[in-house]
Amino acid sequence: QVQLQESGPRLVRPSETLSLTCTVSGDSINTHSLMWIRQSPEKGLEWMGYIYFTGSSNINPSLSSRLTMSVDTSKNQFSLRLTSVTAADTAVYFCAAGDIPPNWAYYWGQGTLVTVSS
Amino acid sequence: DIRMTQSPSSVSASVGDRVTVTCRASQAISGWLAWYQQRPGKAPKLLIYSVSTLQTGVPSRFSGSTSGTGFTLTINDLQPEDFATYYCQQTDTFPPTFGQGTKVEVK
After folding, report:
1. Which pLDDT does position A29 carry in this prediction?
2. Which of B91, B90, B89 is nearest to B101 (CA)?
3. Do the chains contact at B46 and A110, CB–CB below 8 Å?
4. CA distance B103 to chain A (A)
5. Cα angle vertex B62, ends B27, B64, to 5°?
6. Beta carbon pairs, A and B, within 8 Å
């Protein structure tokens, strides 16, 4: 059974960078598309982007100027970095995994609430 | 982006009822539609993909279909664990987008 777990700071200051890591267990990340999805009361569920184990990624155009994703196959982890955050980036951030090419999110992390506040 | 519109936003039902949730896309999305269930404080769970294919382990009381006007999630014989929020998602056009959710509440 594939399991995912998000980790990272829960509080980020405005204008700073939000960084999260997702650790995958139960299977190699090489066989999955690796996604980030966030959820807020204002925007609902927002699909942020995906990355493959090769490092190839595709990011939601609404975030492409601020979001980068990376992967560490040696640790079976993938990460996101969202720069210049504002209160609008306060959300529950989920990492998820699906097939290649990505369509459905079959496996989800439990989610982590990140608050942007000074 | 493709806008996904669900109706109703909430529905009150009793155990044993049949519940129907509808999802409409702002443009044609072919068969690239999924349904997720989310319980409070939990991550969404994939129920149905490709309009009508049940994810492994999902009870057969859940079903998905399409008509000329949209897509439908049907829950037959509603069980206590089915009270949750349901979301549709399209992956036809990048970026994938979700509906705003339909909350199934206890009547």
Report:
1. 94
2. B89
3. no
4. 13
5. 25
6. 49
